[in-house]
Write a structure and sequence with these properties.
With about 350 residues, this protein is an alpha/beta fold. Helices cover about 25% and strands about 20% of the residues. The structure holds aspartic acid.
């Protein structure tokens, strides 16, 4: 996959205050109409014409655009690899990064990046828009300008938000705690189990107590993925045939059970026996709730007690998006047994 690179100094003729890299991957954000009314990706060399207010940020901006911008429903681990490599390779010379991405799988990408870049000590702000930048009422302009402001914000040279976040509709959220919850209105993302990191109003109010502190480690890059995982979403009426078809799929290494409430599941013998059989065959089973808020507590109800007894791992308050990407990265890098041990340990502030 190729990309193009352009430089825009919004401070000219003055001196830029910070350097920020924009990585444009695709999504609704950058869609615009050509002279014949056909939707085409936005040309970033024209960004200052679309957004003259950018000049007030005094930034030296480098834009990396995917040559073939992707609707985020087509995002794959190979794209995560590409984004994380761009961040890794340009890390020293940039003060922060803004990733422009479709909203549909944005929470998966933000979660994946948080596990792929341990030791990150600079802001990586993932954002996008519900309406293309070319539309008069688009949310793209505010989302981009504030994301750039946050990506370049520092106090005495120390970045204010040294982590992977999603910025959307005036709220900054931890990336691996976020979920897309809305497809029509502008408030597309929520983080039920972790506080908002900042709110943008007349000024940007940072919730410093909730923002992670770098531990002084060197930035690393992890790009091995193993996608041999599945999600089994429970519903009243689910039968043995469906459960077995999923958990007996050839080559599967881990299954996320999407359970009810605080991690509850049917207590029927056939169900528990099927899961037990999978665990015996070495498959990792993890328990993530269908509820966006709250936590899995196996054993709180009779209907989750046997899950704990047979060896299902509690995903506690992790989002589905964090669980999927964490499993893929741990399995890809370490294999099945270490993944079983590490799965519910926090790697990037995603759990607990
Ligand atoms: N389908 C689009 C995408 O995720 C939606 C959006 O960007 O909001 O790429």
């Amino acid at each position: 996959m190729n990309y193009t690179r352009i430089n825009i100094n919004t401070a000219q003729p003055g001196k830029a205050k910070s350097r920020v890299m924009i990585i444009y991957t695709g999504g609704t954000f950058g869609m615009t109409y050509d002279a014949n009314g056909v939707l085409i990706p936005f040309d970033f060399s024209l960004i200052l014409e679309q957004l003259p207010a950018l000049r007030n940020l005094f930034l030296e901006i480098t834009v990396i655009s995917f040559d073939h911008p992707v609707d985020s429903s087509n995002i794959q681990p190979v794209h995560w690899k590409m984004i994380s490599e761009i961040i890794f390779e340009n890390y020293e010379e940039q003060d922060g990064f803004v990733v422009l991405h479709g909203t549909d799988t944005m929470a998966f990408t933000a979660s994946a990046l948080s596990f792929m870049l341990p030791g990150l000590a600079k802001p990586v702000i993932v954002t996008g828009a519900q309406l293309p930048i070319s539309q008069p009422r688009s949310d793209a302009r505010e989302n981009l300008i504030t994301a750039l402001e946050i990506a370049s914000a520092n106090e005495n040279g120390r970045p204010l938000v040294p982590e992977i976040c999603i910025y959307f509709d005036y709220e900054l959220l931890r990336g691996n705690r976020s979920k897309k919850v809305e497809s029509m209105h502008f408030d597309a993302f929520k983080s039920e189990n972790y506080p908002t990191l900042a709110k943008a109003g007349v000024k940007i109010d940072y919730n410093t107590a909730a923002i992670s502190e770098p531990h002084g480690e060197k930035l690393r890059l992890r790009t091995s993925f193993d996608t041999d995982i599945a999600i089994l979403k429970l519903f009243p009426g689910i039968d043995k045939r469906t459960v077995d078809a999923i958990i007996n799929a050839e080559g599967l290494k881990a299954v996320i059970l999407e359970t009810y409430g605080s991690g509850n599941a049917p207590s029927s013998d056939w169900f528990i026996e099927s899961l037990k059989g999978a665990i015996k065959r070495g498959i990792i089973l993890v328990n993530i709730s269908q509820c966006p808020g709250g936590t899995v507590v196996q054993g709180k109800y009779e209907t989750s007690k046997s899950l704990a007894e047979i060896g299902v791992i509690s995903g506690e308050d992790m989002t589905m998006e964090a669980a999927v990407t964490k499993l893929m990265i741990l399995l890809g890098e370490q294999g099945v047994e270490p993944t079983r041990k590490l799965f519910n340990q926090p790697l990037a502030g995603e759990v607990g």
